[in-house]
Design brief:
The chain is 36% helix and 21% strand. It contains 14 helices and 19 strands. Strand 14 (340-346) and strand 15 (349-355) form a beta hairpin.
Length: 450
């Protein structure tokens, strides 16, 4: 019913936005029943849990943490969403995951490895709770932690990625039952736990799809698919029925609500399609992501606008090495998992475009390089990105975009991009963002006409 190729399995991925309450779990059960043969399922942590685990890590390090109270919240939260765990055969593994979390929290100040053990607890607990909840609904599933598969990863944080060849050689994915695989993390070459960047469960799903030669990957979300405009702007964007792989990568790089940008890569060579579908409306087709098809004249299909981004300038002192400072700062910010929208050198020094919430940490990092560094922070900016196949090389699209903003009295300048031609990125004063978005949605017909 749900599969796209007869005899091939489909990989289903359920993220935290689909794991908020018992109604979501019932919907997950219904979605799994749609697919024959039985699917491979990848799950994230329950909604909000990873953020709470990150907060707990910071609280431990600031010596303002009550471990017993936090563990009690974790237990109660999961039992409230999946009360079936308390009377299930999955209970021992639930207790094991909680015990591992307790030990990891207690060890955070002692050495390496404990932080990762804390973070993966979200996926471990989610998988065993879902195993209990789905089993009670008549679906035979088996929770598998990444080390059970096993999923192999390579690279150092924050550049950890799944190792396709090693995982292909050693992965044991059962064919006679539905595996419920904890996403986001794996085992490195030293057999230590390692997490991918946030949203990495998408990568778990797509790499596994490549390994088993899946019919498709379905990413279930709480939205109708990829929309031409984020609903937070108060306007109803159109659902985009089809994106090619490269369009999807570029949109994902600038919109965390879509998917992890690295998730597309393993699908490209084999041509495995990805479908982003709404969990509670299975009758809706969602957005299909696949190989490039001819769409005629390039046109803007998706608009993303981020507000309150700041351009930070680090003025290097005379004699300072621009190249080594640029490389060193970039590596440090990546290691700290700070989102860098742009980092570049100019005659005045090094410029970094970043989120307001990260300003203090970036200033601290720069002062670690140079305790007497001169740092300047500009006025808040809006970063507006438009996406569509081939638009960056199309003079008509660029002229229409810039002329529309100029007609509103908005002085915009283009942000250089290393991408393949499916996006244009502009910066302008943050206060102009609502006017700009409103005008461009009309100009490029991005709103739903219904």
């Amino acid at each position: 019913m749900g599969g796209t190729v007869e005899g091939l399995r489909t990989v289903l991925k359920f993220g935290g936005s689909c794991l908020k309450n018992s109604a979501d779990i019932s919907a997950i059960a219904d979605r799994i029943r749609m697919f024959n043969p039985s699917p491979v399922v990848v799950v994230s942590a329950f909604f909000g849990v990873t953020d709470r685990l990150l907060d707990a890590i910071n609280d431990v390090r600031s010596h303002s943490f009550d471990r017993s109270s936090f563990l009690r919240w974790v237990r109660d939260h999961h039992c409230a969403l999946a009360p079936e765990i308390l009377t299930s055969d999955s209970l021992p593994r639930f207790e094991e995951a909680l015990s591992n979390l307790d030990v990891a929290l207690a060890s955070l100040l002692d050495g390496d490895g404990a932080e990762v053990s804390v973070l993966v607890s979200g996926e471990r607990l989610s998988s065993v709770c879902l195993e209990a909840a789905l089993s009670s609904r008549g679906i035979k599933v088996r929770a598998m932690w990444a080390e059970n598969v096993p999923i192999r990863v390579k690279g150092r944080a924050p550049f950890v990625r799944m190792d396709l060849s090693q995982t292909s050689e050693c992965a044991r994915i059962p064919s006679n039952e539905i595996p419920l695989i904890a996403g986001w993390y794996g085992i490195d070459q030293s057999d230590n736990l390692a997490t991918m960047s946030r949203g990495g469960s998408d990568c778990t799903a797509t790499y596994l799809a490549a390994i088993i030669g899946a019919a498709s990957v379905v990413i279930w979300r709480d939205v109708p698919g990829v929309l031409s405009l984020d609903p937070s702007w108060g306007m109803r964007g159109r659902r985009i029925p089809y994106l090619n792989y490269r369009e999807a990568v570029e949109i994902a790089s600038y919109s965390s609500r879509l998917l992890h940008p690295d998730a597309i890569e393993p699908l490209v060579e084999s041509g495995i399609p990805m479908i982003i579908r709404p969990l509670h409306h299975p009758e809706e087709p969602g957005t299909y992501v696949g190989p490039s098809i001819s769409i005629g004249h390039p046109t803007v299909r998706v608009l993303v606008c981020h507000r309150r981004r700041f351009d930070l300038l680090w003025r290097l002192r005379s004699g300072g090495s621009l190249s080594s400072s640029l490389t060193g700062l970039g590596q440090l910010l990546h290691k700290q998992r700070i989102r860098i929208w742009s980092i570049r050198a100019d005659p005045a020094g090094i410029r970094v475009l970043l989120d307001e919430a990260d300003l203090a940490r970036v200033e601290s990092s720069i002062l670690g390089f140079d305790s007497e560094a001169e740092i300047q922070i500009g006025s808040p900016l809006a970063l507006l990105s438009v996406f569509g196949e081939g638009i960056s090389a199309d003079h008509h699209v660029r002229e229409t975009l810039l002329d529309s903003l100029l007609g509103l009295g908005i002085d915009a300048w283009e942000l250089e991009s290393q991408e393949e031609g499916h996006a244009i990125h502009l910066l302008f004063n943050d206060e102009d963002a609502p006017t700009a978005v409103g005008r461009l949605t009309e100009c490029f017909e991005l709103l739903d006409a219904d």
